[in-house]
TrEMBL record, chain A:
One Pfam family in the UniProt entry: p450
Taxon lineage: Bacteria, Pseudomonadati, Pseudomonadota, Alphaproteobacteria, Caulobacterales
Membrane spanning stretches: none
Alphabetically ordered keywords of this record: Heme, Iron, Metal-binding, Monooxygenase, Oxidoreductase
InterPro entries attached to this UniProt entry: Cyt_P450, Cyt_P450_B, Cyt_P450_CS, Cyt_P450_sf
Native species: Phenylobacterium ferrooxidans
Protein name (record): Cytochrome P450
PANTHER family linked: CYTOCHROME P450 YJIB-RELATED, P450, PUTATIVE (EUROFUNG)-RELATED
Key word Zinc-finger present: no
Automatic annotation (TrEMBL), chain B:
Entry protein name: 2Fe-2S iron-sulfur cluster-binding protein
Cofactor: [2Fe-2S] cluster
Iron in keyword set: yes
Keywords: 2Fe-2S, Iron, Iron-sulfur, Metal-binding
Keyword Manganese in record: no
Superkingdom field: Bacteria
Family: Belongs to the adrenodoxin/putidaredoxin family.
2Fe-2S ferredoxin-type domain boundaries: 2-105
Length: 416, 106
């Protein structure tokens, strides 16, 4: 995202003029200082216009019900890549791969339908033993009594292994998936992971080449349960163009990478900060599914999704104009005190823990939500079976992005 | 009160009396009937309350809305009688209706 850009200095959230509030400032996200800004917007200007930012002018939608109204109105609020796509930073024209998250119906519905069964609860159930085995191996390999980076050793390793499992991807090459995911989300600039669009494209073509080899292998073998085999044998996908194949692969690699990675790290941080909740979980492991949902709400690993208005629209007293950029701040909707009780607290046995915005709502709702929940469930079942506690040794460094809400590192220690 | 019967995927049945005006997702959640999540709270926005309506009752519940159709696009094993429970509101003429739950909600 906007990594590398320090952003504007942080002003006091209570005294700054309402019209000067810019919650997209990457510095706010690096410092975890966006909370009071959103609290003020929810109270004083729930549908708020920011005239100028690093990403141009945009509307902020900050309350749960307003976000729901935008998210479920795809006739007015488009995800179309050609209009800018689904994040606050406009999708570049140079590299616009067809992927269903950045499409409107009817094309969106047809393509999503192909991918969806791959991450259905029934299909995931058959993968659970394999996933669990890999989780156990990662956890058993962790050091005791010494400080290490949970993000690298567990969160990245686990989500990468999961992706490799899902794709039946050559295991020894699995960090290529992490690399391609990082490439796909990097805005080319001097000093960045890739410096030009051409360089980015050529690496993504290597990715396509690799996956095309896997496709050819699988298409000539009996149908298997992995994602590539399903695509290669699926009636409505076996004739996909290379661009569509690559577009949907990238969507699945990125979608399955950053998000779950940061929720896993977030769960460890949340448990460290809330020892009473951790005690509750240890005493009653049946709370794990509920704790998983609460973690996903509390973390909100994607802070927002973006839409573009296709016509003028009245929302909570404000007029959004045709062509305007509209940001649905899930991170704020998940703290909306008028809908969620004690929203700033981490409570693993909430009454309705699943009623959060982190997966989005409407036709673009996260397709991999069940996989994310399964990974978090397994990892916590296995943590409880092994470790008495995981101590966080320092405040984590955070990603300086208003989109990917996550951690660059999380130093922890498991007592010997 | 209107009697509605939920049939679980394993064949187990739960008959409950629901008030006019509540929807079948709320009715299931309020009665702790497993297999219906209702993550969005009834906004036709998450497709986690997928049910099958027994054929005899289909004419009475009426057709799906366009949004419901779109959301059902990505549920599993969708049939002609698939509906989202949050989009069916209890009223007198549905008395005795039987709905079936899928194996899982996406």
């Amino acid at each position: 995202m906007a990594d590398g850009n320090a952003g504007a200095p942080i002003e006091d959230a209570t005294s700054i003029a309402l019209e000067d509030i810019d919650v997209s400032n990457p510095a706010l996200w690096a410092a975890d200082s966006h909370w009071p800004y959103f609290a003020r917007l929810r109270k004083e200007a729930p549908v708020h216009y920011c005239k100028a930012s690093l990403f141009g002018p945009y509307w902020s939608i900050t309350k749960y019900n307003d976000i729901m109204a935008v998210d479920t109105n795809h006739q007015v609020f488009s995800s179309e890549a050609a209009l800018g796509g689904i994040a606050i930073i406009d999708q570049g024209a140079e590299l616009r791969l067809p992927m269903f998250i950045a499409m409107d119906p009817p094309k969106h519905d047809a393509q999503r339908k192909v991918v969806s069964p791959i991450v259905s609860p029934m299909n995931l159930a058959t993968m659970e033993p394999l996933i669990r085995g890999r989780v156990q191996q990662i956890l058993d390999g962790l050091p005791r009594g010494e400080t290490f980076d949970w993000v690298d050793r567990v969160s990245i390793e686990l989500t990468t292994q999961m992706l490799a499992t899902l794709f039946d991807f050559p295991f020894e090459d699995r960090r290529k998936l992490t690399y391609w995911s990082d490439i796909a989300t990097t805005i080319p600039a001097p000093g960045m992971l890739v410096e030009t669009e051409e360089e980015k494209l050529s690496i993504l073509m290597e990715c396509l080449g690799y996956f095309t080899r896997l496709w050819n292998e699988r298409v000539n073998a009996p149908p298997g349960g992995d994602l590539i085999s399903m695509l290669a044998h699926g009636e409505s996908t076996r004739n996909m163009s290379p661009e569509e194949y690559l577009g949907n692969l990238i969507l699945l690699i990125v979608g399955g990478n950053d998000t779950t990675r940061n929720s896993i790290s977030g769960s460890v941080l949340a448990m460290h900060r809330n020892p009473d909740e951790f005690a509750k979980l240890k005493a009653n492991p049946d709370l794990i599914p509920s704790m998983v949902s609460e973690t996903i709400r509390w973390q909100t690993p994607l802070a927002h999704m973006r839409r573009t208005a296709l016509e003028d629209f009245e929302l909570s007293g404000q007029t959004i104009k045709k062509g305007d950029k509209v940001i649905m701040w899930y991170v704020s909707g998940n703290r909306d005190e008028t809908v969620i009780e004690r929203p700033d607290e981490y409570i693993i046995d909430r009454e309705r823990p699943r009623q959060h915005m982190s997966f989005g709502f409407g036709i673009h709702r996260c397709v991999g939500n069940r996989l994310a929940e399964l990974q978090l469930k397994i990892i916590w079942e296995e943590i409880l079976a092994r470790f008495d506690r995981i101590e966080v040794m320092a405040e984590p460094e955070r990603v300086p992005s208003p989109f990917v809400k996550g951690y660059l590192n999380l130093l922890v220690r498991i007592p010997a | 009160m209107t009697k509605i019967t939920y049939v679980m995927f394993d064949g187990g049945e739960r008959a409950v009396d629901l008030k006019t005006g509540v929807n079948l997702m709320q009715g299931a959640v309020a009665n702790n009937i497993p297999g219906i999540d209702g993550d969005c709270g009834g906004a036709c926005a998450c497709a986690t309350c997928h049910i099958y309506v027994d054929a005899a009752w289909l004419p009475k519940v009426g057709p799906r809305t366009a949004m419901e159709d779109s959301m059902l696009e990505f549920a599993e094993h969708v049939e002609a009688n698939s509906r989202l429970a949050c989009q069916i509101t209890v009223r007198d003429e549905l008395a005795g209706m039987v709905v079936r739950l899928p194996e899982a909600q996406h």
